[in-house]
Amino acid sequence: MVKLAEFDNFGVENMSGEEFESKQAYVTSKCMCQGCPSYVEGDAPIGYCLPLIGTSKNIKYEKDCLCSKCPIFQEYDLTHSHYCTRCSQVCQAYKSEIGGGHE
Ligand code: SF4
Ligand code: SF4
Q1: Distance between CA atoms of 15 and 8, rounded to whole angstroms?
Q2: pLDDT digits (tens, 9 = 90+) for 70-79
Q3: Ligand 2 neighbours by CB, cut-off 6 Å
Q4: In the chain, which end has fewer C-beta atoms inside a 10 angstrom radius, N or C?
């Protein structure tokens, strides 16, 4: 049985709300989304790779994705892309592991 914790690159499973807010602020400060061709101006919150942020309500078209060049991507060993449209790292990892069915 695959456990979500195995994909918890950001270690959010046991975080308090305060710790999560601090992690979100850190991720957001490094996030490169606002310079990405796919990004729609004004969309927030960014840092779509982080769990609980959710996909963008405004970004509908996937163009380039800068995630693989982002310091957060390197720091947390992320493996996916287009988090704004496809969902967070944990969500995409879980989907690819079980073959769909998780949002
Ligand atoms: S990996 Fe992508 S979504 Fe995550 S912080 Fe970097 S640019 Fe933003
Ligand atoms: S998640 Fe990737 S595709 Fe989406 S805005 Fe950020 S860098 Fe661009």
Answers
A1: 11
A2: 999 999 999 9
A3: 32-33, 36, 38-39, 48, 65-67, 81-84
A4: N
Q: By C-alpha distance, which of 73, 83, 86, 79 is closest to 7?
A: 79
Instruction: Note the pTM of the prediction, 2 decimals.
Output: 0.91
Classify residue 13: in a domain, yes or no: no
User: Cα–Cα distances in Å, from 97 out to 67, 94, 100?
Assistant: 21, 5, 8
pLDDT of residue 62: 98
CA of 1 to the centre of ligand 2 (A): 31
Our CA dihedral for 87, 75, 28, 62, rounded to 10 degrees, sits at -40
| Nearest listed ligand to the Cα of residue 82 | 2
- Domain range holding 72? 26-98
Q: Is residue 53 part of a domain?
A: yes
Pick the atom of ligand 1 nearest to 72's CA.
6
